[in-house]
Design goal:
With 356 residues, the chain is of the alpha+beta class. Helix content is 34%, strand content 15%. The protein has two domains: 81 residues, Phosphorylase Kinase, domain 1 (2-Layer Sandwich), CATH 3.30.200; 200 residues, Transferase(Phosphotransferase) domain 1 (Transferase(Phosphotransferase), domain 1, Orthogonal Bundle), CATH 1.10.510.10. The strands form four sheets. Strands 1, 2, 3, 4, 5 and 6 form a six-stranded antiparallel sheet that branches. A two-stranded antiparallel sheet has the order 7-10. A two-stranded antiparallel ribbon has the order 8-9. The longest helix is centred in the middle third of the chain and has 28 residues.
């Protein structure tokens, strides 16, 4: 296991702190109020730009207020005001050039957190740590949608079917509503996949606890009206829309429509138990590319007899996915239209009841 980064020194900055210009546009993690320790943190994920650790948060007695001592034009640093959970997820740069990617992600998160009830749709962001450029989030211990799919693949086929019937309606509603929220904020996620969706249990107080799904990882995201040509991160092939593999730049850039496709494949992933292209393409990247360009993930998924049975047993869920999996992006539903369609559906769950 990689060695965790050094725990930041309280009250100090690293050699490459976030610039004051960046601070003015970014939520900063208020380490004077609560901090974290990485020495005993657990690595929970890693990628091209980052390593993510689950760490305990450490409450710190707040210093005396200095608000009265400030005189114009002095302005206090901007900090995130929401409460911090007892466990935090700390996203640490994995390479020197990750700093700009982190600052970009922090700006996207800053924009999203200007909306009310944002944490119903994305994992809460506590701010960018100015000492080391780490991004600090709410710690979510329920794992990812990818983890859930893996667990479902090691139980009996009957148990798996019953679990999928029980879980799919709620997951679909959470994720489609979340995508509608992102698009209403003019944000293209650009990398929707099961690994970028975290799950946790929510006690509503009115019924049994429910599983909630929320989005993470906005390193590839951008505002619709901004130039995204210089972004370094990209999507994952299995979840890319057919047009994204075209040569023409005006077609292959991420859009709201490609986000919808990515979520359609993600929901299909739950039913199938993995990538819909796996049976036909295996690890052959050329075949995978051509399969994606064909725009027929359901056809490729059905090449596996076991998967074909799963699809036939969940035809209502497949119909939900099909709305997003139109090859022609002009015919593909919008997130808003998809959410409106879903409100009219009643899915039968594993206990025979209907899920509104």
């Amino acid at each position: 296991m990689p060695t965790p980064p050094v725990t930041p020194v309280k009250g100090a900055t690293t050699e490459t702190p976030v610039s004051s210009h960046d601070q003015s546009n970014t939520m900063l993690f208020d380490f004077s109020r609560i901090d974290y320790e990485l020495d005993r943190a657990r690595l929970i994920g890693s990628g091209l730009w980052s390593s993510v650790y689950l760490a305990e948060s450490l409450p710190i007695s707040p210093p005396p207020s200095s608000r009265d001592s400030l005189t114009p034009p002095s302005t206090p640093n901007r900090h995130h005001a929401t409460s911090v959970s007892s466990v935090v997820a700390v996203k640490c740069p994995a390479r020197p050039d990750a700093k700009s990617v982190f600052e970009h992600e922090a700006r996207i998160l800053n924009h999203l957190h200007s909306a009310p009830r944002v944490n119903e749709h994305i994992v809460a962001f506590h701010g960018l740590d100015p000492r080391n450029s780490n991004l600090v989030f709410e710690g979510v211990i329920g794992g990812s949608l990818e983890d859930l799919s893996g667990r479902l693949n090691v139980v009996t086929e009957l148990s798996r079917h019953l679990e999928v019937r029980q879980l799919f309606p709620g997951l679909a509603r959470d994720l489609i509503a979340g995508l509608h929220f992102l698009h209403s904020m003019r944000v293209v996620h650009a990398d929707i996949k099961p690994a970028n969706i975290l799950l946790d249990i929510v006690d509503t107080g009115r019924q049994d606890p429910v599983l909630r799904a929320r989005y993470i990882d906005f390193s590839a995201s951008f505002l619709l009206d901004e130039d995204n040509s210089k972004l370094n991160a990209g999507a994952t092939w299995d979840f890319m829309a057919p047009e994204q593999l075209r040569i023409q730049k005006e077609l292959n850039q991420p859009t709201f429509a490609s986000d919808v496709w990515g979520l359609g494949i993600t929901l299909l992933y739950i039913i199938v138990g993995g990538s819909p292209y796996k049976a036909a393409c295996g690890t052959n990247l050329f075949m995978l590319r051509e399969a994606i360009k064909s725009g027929d993930p359901l056809g490729f998924a059905r090449m596996d007899p076991a998967v074909d049975k799963r699809l036939k047993a969940c035809q209502d869920f497949v119909d939900c996915c099909r709305l997003a999996l139109q090859k022609d992006r002009e015919r593909r539903c919008t997130a808003e239209g998809w959410a409106e369609w879903l409100e009219q559906q009643e899915f039968e769950t594993s206990d025979g009841a209907s899920s509104p």
